[in-house]
Write a structure and sequence with these properties.
The structure holds 3 protein chains of 3 kinds. Chain B is mainly alpha-helical. Chain B has helices at residues 10-16, 20-48, 59-93, 102-120, 148-176, 189-220, 235-268, 275-289, 304-316, 318-332, 341-364, 366-372, 376-406, 412-439, 455-485, 524-531, 553-570, 580-600, 610-620, and strands at 517-518, 537-538, 545-547, 606-608. The longest helix of chain B has 35 residues, at 59-93. Chain C is mainly alpha-helical. Chain C is elongated and about 70 Å long. Classes of the chains: A mainly alpha, B mainly alpha, C mainly alpha.
């Protein structure tokens, strides 16, 4: 019965195939990390150094932020793995509700403040 | 790991219980007490409005009563009463032994209760909050509202945490704890609507928490969110509040729809008409519920484009709601209907709710809303939704599930009398309020002048309130009478019903199902009655049953939150007896300390031995 | 109900979801994060709605200092990677490696928190207090809420690391560590939006 809940294990039950997959996975994660660092530097440069026009900078950095969001969720938080259907459904619902929330608070407050 | 459960005294058992059935009953009791409290306030307000220029309540008390009546009814009465049924019934209906997180379930209850008590403490410290249940700034800002509003902010913040964790618990329970064969599309509709309602809680109570945090920072720590001459904006609060507030209506009404969808098929002796359409209509209502909040703010001045978008989105909700209404009617159509008390409430729900829905569509038209806004028409509309929808459904559910919860029936004669007195009283009270609103009587006023055509209807409305009160007193008499004289229920299935909760013996054993049932169809019990031998087929052999241990920690965590909240409130008091920071930090220390203990101490529960399960099975006879 | 897990061959390759309790925690925590999304969205919305409400106080252009934010971003992004690596070590039942990566995550988080406290101290020093203007209030509450999440996450991970310092990876603590790591990633996601929406858009 379930007496093994608090005991450590001698070895891992991973098969060789799973181990190979895991190593591949780790390499992939490091590539994603490098990509995220690159994107971050890009957005800081876009604003910090006057490389691109300012009117273009804001949509550009917002786009980069969205890409980073996707990378974090899909790779670092493993949403691409199997058995994540419900998690994906609820994260998408959550993000879906944030859009009108933020839009309304940004746009509908009006100029009259009282 | 303890092999056997320890013996406990009764009180300690209820304080430490993590059993979803006991928690359901505790939610029911707590919710009823708050319901009565807020109901008495409503009665007093109606007495004040019975004649023009009455002096029964002062204007200030009246303001405190409208605020507390609304706040308590929504957060501390309707929500826990629905949670009572959700807690008790969902695990039984999906064939589970308990919820996914029994500890969190207990935590949710105790946090809700301590939040509710914190809010109620305001009466002892200079009066309740008085800015309406919506607490619009600047009325609720630090310059205009007293310490009562801090009780509102912190009380709701605390009880909101409880509601939120309970909702997550229900979501995981419904997804992970279903019996074999109980696919998502075989879930009873009450489970489906609770699932979607819990989703709404997850996404709506978090903005409320944020909004309340902003208001607290403004009031206690001198932040400037809502102070216009410091760059703040008062409309911000209205948006945040209604981003929460509109879904809140659906949070309450969807489980009510679910109860109706259980009771009507059971007493029409037909399966629910259009099950799939019902599920998807519920989802669409939830989805649209998040897109319409600004229809509460048509007169704020958002501009014609925003008003039109929100008006159209609001009117769209009538479509999925209409689908539901027709499905209930078609379920009853050609059925063999038994009109007992539960069915009387459920069937009368349908036309009453239609009335509330129609006035809702009227209010959704932005141009005309300028006329209705803040009149009694709005009051009539949302009471038709909340009393005519949610409360009728709650009573239907109470009479339907009472035998399973308490082991005896409620008296039918008293029940039917209760129904007629309450139902007539309800229409007397609120139907005339439509007319009062159209005549231009503003809401939230504590008195009015005579001879303006408002006298008669206000008088009728108050008389209706007396009927409703008499009805609720009849219910209380019924509960007490039935406890002593009511028909005892020893069979598992007194209504000859359809769903799994009627497959477990009455009283329900602590582990619910001795053997997890194998579900073969929608309405599984009914399917077995027709195609099998009337009992559920087991999906596993008789074996030892794993059960969670009880714990006192949920109570300690919520006591800590109570003191933390009270400490923050003390910061706005004129002369607190001690340093508020000691109370606030002490409370938080208790809460986080108990959470720390919970995290560090591993607790794997215990097992009900096979012999005992077998003995119970023999004794239960089914 | 963990009796159904096959543990004869060693630690399952997904120890965090091997038991029903682990599965429940995993799902419940994702739902919690879904709710947190809206919580932060409301604070972001508040900030975006009020960021021009500076009253007589300083504006964001006058205050924000990008190099510091850049360093903080790098710290937090790296800590996200180290916690991913820790999770891979956990799945492979390499407890020593796992602990090293986790402690590195904690150190990076502490450094981040230190910089943030320093940053807030500087702002207050230069006349941007919490009560200066609506902009200041919304800035401090948004970034402060994130900082509170970092602090809570650090306490959580440290408690777990000390409690399970000697036990090795078990079916009980694997879900706990996994959730803590999910939480840590979520904090990182929020920070991506904070540095974009608050700091970068604040100086444009």
């Amino acid at each position: 019965m379930a007496d093994n809940l608090s005991t450590p294990f001698e070895k891992s039950a991973m098969t060789d195939e799973e181990k190979r997959q895991t190593s591949k996975e780790i390499r992939k994660q490091i590539i994603v990390f490098a990509l995220m660092i690159f994107l971050t530097i890009m957005s800081f440069l876009a604003v910090g150094a006057d490389i691109i026009p300012r009117s273009f900078a804001i949509p550009f950095i917002l786009l980069l932020a969205l890409v980073q969001l996707a990378l974090q969720l899909i790779f670092f938080m493993h949403l691409k793995d199997k058995d994540h259907g419900w998690a994906i459904a609820f994260m998408i619902s959550g993000i879906f509700v944030t859009v009108p929330t933020i839009a309304a608070l940004m746009l509908l407050l009006g100029i009259t403040k009282y | 790991m303890a092999a056997q459960k320890q013996e406990k005294s009764v009180i300690w058992d209820w304080l430490t219980t993590v059993d979803h059935k006991k928690l359901g009953i505790m939610y029911l009791i707590a919710g009823t007490l708050f319901f009565v409290k807020a109901g008495v306030m409503a009665l007093f307000m109606r007495i004040q409005l019975m004649y023009p220029e009455m002096n029964f309540l002062s204007g200030q008390t009246f303001n405190e009563f409208i605020t507390m009546h609304g706040t308590i009814m929504l957060f501390l009465a309707a929500t826990p009463l629905l949670f009572a049924f959700m807690n008790y019934v969902i695990p039984l209906q999906i064939g589970a032994r308990d919820v996914a997180f029994p500890f969190v379930n207990a935590l949710g209850f105790w946090i809700f209760l301590s939040g509710g008590l914190l809010l109620s403490m305001s009466w002892f410290f200079g009066g309740g909050p008085d800015a309406g249940w919506t607490a619009y700034v600047p009325l609720s800002s630090r310059d205009y509202a007293g310490v009562g509003l801090d009780f509102y902010v912190l009380g709701l913040q605390v009880s909101g945490i409880g509601t939120l964790v309970s909702a997550i618990n229900f979501l995981v329970t419904i997804i992970n704890m279903r019996a074999p064969g109980m696919t998502m599309m075989r879930l009873p509709l009450f489970v489906w609507s609770s699932f979607i309602s819990s989703t709404l809680i997850l996404f709506a109570f978090t903005p409320l928490a944020a909004g309340l945090a902003l208001l607290m920072l403004d009031r206690i720590f001198d932040a400037q969110f809502f102070i216009p001459n410091m760059g703040g904006n008062v409309v911000l609060w209205q948006h945040i509040f209604w981003i929460f507030g509109h879904p809140e209506v659906y949070i309450l009404v969807l489980p009510a729809f679910g109860i109706i969808s259980e009771v009507i098929p059971a007493f029409s002796r037909k399966r629910l008409f259009g099950y799939t359409a019902m599920v998807f209509a519920t989802m669409i209502i939830a989805f649209l519920g998040f897109m319409v909040w600004a229809h509460h703010m048509f007169t704020v001045g958002m501009g014609p484009v925003a008003n039109s978008i929100f008006a159209i989105a609001t009117m769209t909700i009538a479509v999925p709601t209409g689908i539901k209404i027709f499905n209930w009617l078609f379920t009853m159509w050609g059925g063999k209907i038994t009109f007992n008390t539960a069915m009387l409430f459920a069937s009368s729900f349908v036309p009453t709710f239609v009335l509330g829905g129609v006035t809702g569509v009227m209010l959704a038209m932005a141009p005309v809303d300028y006329l209705y806004h803040d009149t009694y028409f709005v009051v009539a509309h949302f009471h038709y939704i909340i009393v005519g929808g949610i409360v009728l459904a709650l009573f239907a559910g109470l009479f339907y599930w009472y035998p399973k919860m308490f082991g005896h029936m409620l008296n039918e004669t008293l029940g039917k009398l209760f129904f007629w007195v309450f139902y007539i009283g309800f229409h007397l009270t609120f139907f005339v309020q439509h007319l009062l609103g159209l005549m231009g009587m503003p809401r939230r006023v504590y008195t009015y002048l005579g001879n303006q055509g408002l006298d008669t209807f206000n008088f009728i409305s108050t008389i209706g309130t007396f009927f409703m009160s008499a009805g609720v007193i009849l219910l209380v008499i019924n509960v007490i009478y039935s406890a002593f004289k009511g028909e005892r229920v020893t069979v598992a299935d007194p209504w000859d019903a359809r769903t799994l909760e009627w497959a477990v013996p009455t009283p329900v054993p602590e582990y619910n199902f001795a053997q997890t049932p194998q579900v073969r169809s929608l309405d599984p019990l009914f399917y077995e009655k027709i195609h099998g031998d009337g009992t559920m087929k087991p999906a596993e052999p008789v074996q030892a049953i794993h059960m969670p241990n009880g714990s006192i920690l949920p109570l300690i965590i919520s006591v800590g939150l109570f003191f933390a909240g009270f400490g923050f409130i003390m910061m706005n008091m004129e002369n607190p007896i001690m340093n508020p920071w000691i109370v606030a930090i002490g409370g938080l220390a208790i809460t986080f300390g108990a959470m720390f203990v919970r995290s560090v101490k591993e607790d794997h529960g215990y097992y009900v031995p096979v012999e005992q399960v077998k003995a119970d099975l023999k004794k239960g006879g089914n | 109900m963990a009796g159904h897990v096959d543990t004869s061959k060693g630690l399952p390759s997904h120890p965090e979801r091997a038991t029903l309790e682990g599965k429940n925690k995993f799902l419940g925590f994702w739902f919690f994060l879904g709710g947190e999304t809206i919580l932060f969205a409301t604070f972001f919305g508040t900030y975006l709605g009020l960021r021009n409400g500076v009253a007589d106080g300083p504006t964001s252009q006058e205050m924000f200092h990008l190099p510091l934010v850049f360093i903080m971003t790098m710290l937090l992004l790296t800590s996200s990677l180290t916690s991913v690596l820790a999770m891979f070590a956990m799945k492979k039942n390499k407890f020593g490696t796992f602990k090293i990566w986790m402690w590195i995550t904690v150190l990076l988080g502490l450094a981040f928190l230190g910089f943030e406290i320093y940053e807030f101290y500087e702002y207050v020093h230069h006349g941007l207090g919490f009560t200066t203007s609506a902009f200041a209030s919304s800035f401090f509450s948004l970034v402060g809420l994130h900082g509170a999440h970092v602090a809570f996450g650090l306490c959580w991970i440290i408690v777990l690391l000390i409690r399970y310092n000697k036990t090795g990876i078990t079916l009980t603590n694997a879900p706990k560590f996994y959730l803590a790591s999910l939480y840590w990633h979520f904090i990182d996601v929020v920070w991506v939006f904070i540095f974009t929406v608050v700091y970068l858009m604040g100086v444009v």
